[in-house]
UniProtKB/TrEMBL annotation:
HAMAP family in alphabetical order: AddA
Organism: Propionispira arboris
Catalysed conversion reaction: ATP + H2O = ADP + phosphate + H(+); Couples ATP hydrolysis with the unwinding of duplex DNA by translocating in the 3'-5' direction
InterPro entries tied to this protein: AddA (IPR014152), DNA_helicase_UvrD-like_C (IPR014017), DNA_helicase_UvrD/REP (IPR000212), P-loop_NTPase (IPR027417), PDDEXK-like_dom_sf (IPR011604), PDDEXK_AddAB-type (IPR038726), Restrct_endonuc-II-like (IPR011335), UvrD-like_ATP-bd (IPR014016)
Gene behind the chain: addA
UniProt name for this protein: ATP-dependent helicase/nuclease subunit A
Amino acid sequence: MAWSKAQLKAITTYNKNLLVAAAAGSGKTSVLVERIIQRLLSGNCSIDEILVVTFTNAAAAEMRERIALAIDAELKKNPQSSNLERQSVLLNTASISTMHSFCQTIIRQNFHLLDLDPKFRLANQQEMNLLKRDVLEAIFEEGYESKNAEFLSFVDAYADERSDEEMYGILLKLYEFSRSQPYPEHWIETLPENFVLSEAMTVDDTPWPRIIKEQLNLVFEECRVYCDELVQMAQELDCAFYLPVLQSDLDTIIQLQELLQADWETLRNGLYAVKFATLTAPRGTDVDLKTLFQKPRQQVKEKIKAIKEVYFMSDSMELVEDLRETAPLIQAICDMTVAFANGFAAAKRNKMVVDFSDLEHFALQILLDKESTPQQMKPSVTARNLQQKYVEVMVDEYQDTNGVQEAILSLVRKSSRPNLFVVGDVKQSIYRFRLADPELFLKKYREYPMAGSDFARIDLAQNFRSRAGILEAINYIFAQVMSEKAMELPYGAAEQLNPGPPYPEGEGTLDDSIEVDLIDRDETGTFSETEFAVSETQAAEEETEELKGFPLEARFITSRIQKLMEEKKQVFDKATKTYRPLEWRDIVILLRSVKGKANILLEILHANNIPAYAAVDSGYFEETEVRIMLALLNIIDNPRQDIPLASILYSPIIGLSPVMLAKIKLLQPNDDLFAALLLVNEPSTEIDREVKEKVMKFVLQLSSWRNLARCSSVPDLIWQLFRDTGYYDYVGGMPGGLLRQANLRVLYDRAREYETTNFRGLFRFLRFVDKMKDTGTDLAVARTLGESENVVRVMSIHKSKGLEFPVVIVADLGKKFNLQDSSDTLLVHRKYGLGPFVSKPDISLRYPTIARQAIACLMNRESKAEEMRVLYVALTRSREKLILVGSSTKLADRALNWCRNIDLTCPVLPTYTIAGAKTYLDWIGAALARHEDGKVLRDFAQTTKKRLNIVYENHSRWEIHIIPASDIQNQDVISSETEVLLAAVKAQQILPGSPQQKWVEQVLNWQYPDKTMQEVPAKLSVTEMKRRFEVMDTQALPLFKPKLIVTRPRFIQEQTQLTGAEYGTLMHGVMQHIDFCKDLSENGLKLQLESLVKKEMILPKQISLIDLAGVHKFFTSPLGQRMTVSTKVRRELPFSIMLQAKKFYPDILDERENIFVQGIIDVLFDEPDGMVLIDYKTDKNTQTEAVINKYKLQIDLYSEAAEKILKKDIKEKYLYLFHNGTVIPMD
């Protein structure tokens, strides 16, 4: 291979601490491998004397393979070389691994130096999450029981009304941050220092004002530019009447900029002294001219107002007092985090497990001398031995290391002579969320060139991946938006991408001009530039809005891919070194986040016959086959769960219809579904024989599975379920069968992993799955796609790192940056510590401290810097064609904002423009508006500014298209008749009539022949019928009153007086369960009531409410005596009967119409000559005539129903009034 000068220098430079800044596509891995090979071939170094640390296991394996191939090739040339044979043998045990694997090796070789069982194992993330939760719950339980004042202050400040989850999250977040530090406990212990302020200290003695002032300076600078432009515009348009006010505005902003050098209180006073004069114009001034000045001036006023409201509501003394007031709470949080860390460590030690963080810290503990301090780390004997062993320490992807990993590397490399070789690209550092620290790389990047002869930095800027036009375009964008002041690093000559050897000439190849497709979503809304913070609600609304707009992008991308394939373009094949036709596998669609959007994209791609695949990290638990198997596991654990049981009965495993499920449920309407299922095989049950056989087989099988679950592991149970149900084979025959079967295998594998932990059993496995769902830690759907599959790939930008594709479509560029980290309840920063709220629970008040505001500024700045690096990674994946797609509402307003700097000649955009971006489009649009090809944007924005050529030589070519949403909606990308109809419905178009149109109209226009039936209900209870026909003054009231709650919860009944209906239910319940065969004296009845309490039929507090005298009086009455000696007593007898409707509604024409009537008879007992009916009443009205009139209809209906159903005569009917113990005959 022909190496460039820079590459050759990186390969052959020795005896230096070397930083290789390798740009995207520069061949850094090849350089690192070649450096190792050259060392081995020269004979001055052995493979076991080199430590190579990679970012992934795949990278380590690839590196071993490359080295092995190179050694084998040299052995063929020189088969007698003993050195090469030795290197080939040593390669298998060489220290080429990830950092975690290297740490694990150190630990296993030196476990005796730690309080660690040598049989330890590396636990998976889900097991660690469960263990963390157990420890947290124990700590919080102890805190609540002990009523610790510090703990309770933490609860008062940060607990929500429903759970402790918010507080759990705070402790876990702080713990995770601490683990990226070499001395985590020391780091935590230093956090309260920023809040412990002496009486002499002022807010200016803290770091917070400086950080906020940096942010304010950006705002003031933007305001100054606005004011300066307004002054110039007034002069150019002969608006002298505006000049005094506008010049005053400009002077005010300049004064505020100067006040940034003063103390905080002076700046605050200066801000509150700002008074903007009224902008007046002579009568008759054109309205558009007024607006031209008023709109930007109003933006300046709003920005200044927002600054005052956000940062300067409190004076300096109040800010300091807020910090002091928060100090005890911060100390409590830190103490609890340390307690959690210790408890978690003990729990892991007891279970003999470690996590990835432990690997690093245990290794560091072994490598550190006991006399080491956080300020001075000294190598231990083990570390010094490793220093002697390794001639060179090599690190790949160095930009993604953290503080602990840096400490480990510093202890194993030689201190006597330089032997460190690190390679990476800080512009591709996109793992800050994993606590990677790009500052480590940047520090060396800045210092090494000037650090002396033992240090060197080599820049690999030549890109061997992409066409020259793509590299020119990337350089053009990032030269303008990537500045050190705004985004942590510059993009100068050393950082720019230089093209490697040109692509060969060919016919029908892809044009390397960059395509930018901007979709105007045609929605109204006000474009705002003055957002200082985004609430969670706003973020959720914005995400919903983005999801609404994304289908437009998906449809456009679909049509664009179809067009690319129709054009039969040629792409260069790096393997064969020739051109070949473009294939689906050559195209990738990159998204910042695939959540909620990949499925939309896949659906539209598949609908248009484009094979596509997306690797998503969620959605597993929503897959149908997974939900069914989890439902089956749930009912094996506990069959009395209606929803999982109904799911299985309806699923293909059993295959019952909804109607049959309803019939089964009606067998036991007052109990659970499983109880009804057990009644199916009763001889009296009227259900199809086939269904009975299915149910019987299932019940027996379920019993067998439950027995199996008690004596076998969860994975064995799952596999047995696959066999017994045949469901695994069934889903294999469905569309997407391979993927569905893979999902079921993942469930089996997950259960097998779970069984390797210290947790066991089906119940705990199901709780484990539930916790994963509750915490949002979903799994990825199984992968069934090989790398060579000919499909369009949809992936996140993070997943694409390290990959390359001939055609790259970067979509969703209008998505707003996710800055939610700066809105968390407690902010955590690696360098500046904690940013809390001031909490005053006694008055339900919470507001941010100045520390929180400052850290929020820093976090937003760092998040945007990371977003810029993510964009860099996305754009550098393309080899031959790059297409950028984004959508936005009010696109014209945004475009006008992008054109604000087209009259500047400086290559780098103003810092406030870069830092103020809210989307990738804001950076790309602001840069392209200054390009010659950006005329489309400038015309669309209707800007009045004139473009000036920036001082930057660039030959990039751009194709910019503005696409109205309506154009995409009208595109013919619909492939089926059904989709055509759906598209017409969405577009609110009139659909053509179908052959069934007349029948539909006839059905929809049908009316009852007897219109009087429209007011007659199909079903009535006896109580409702009684109320309907009562002869009272309430006849004008509505027949059916809506009931929001039928029965009040018991806990409410316990705390309040029973309603009349509840008291009646209580008395009826007592009369239903009194045992006639036992003592019916008052004392005997008391004992029976106590028995009912034990059986949980009534509540203890309800005994005192029961009319015991009334109950006793009934049983001692002649009627009660007759009932107790009856041979057949029916209590609380439910019935249903069809009665002639005309009997109750005389206006009905058709005498055949019936009403379905339901009721419950309190008591019906037999005597030799007929039946006796009794109805209990708890009414306080005991006037005999009134009671008879009120309940006559009800008793008559009961009597008629009982006689028709039981085919026996009722000889007597009675009401029993508990209130006075009266028996009223109803004959």
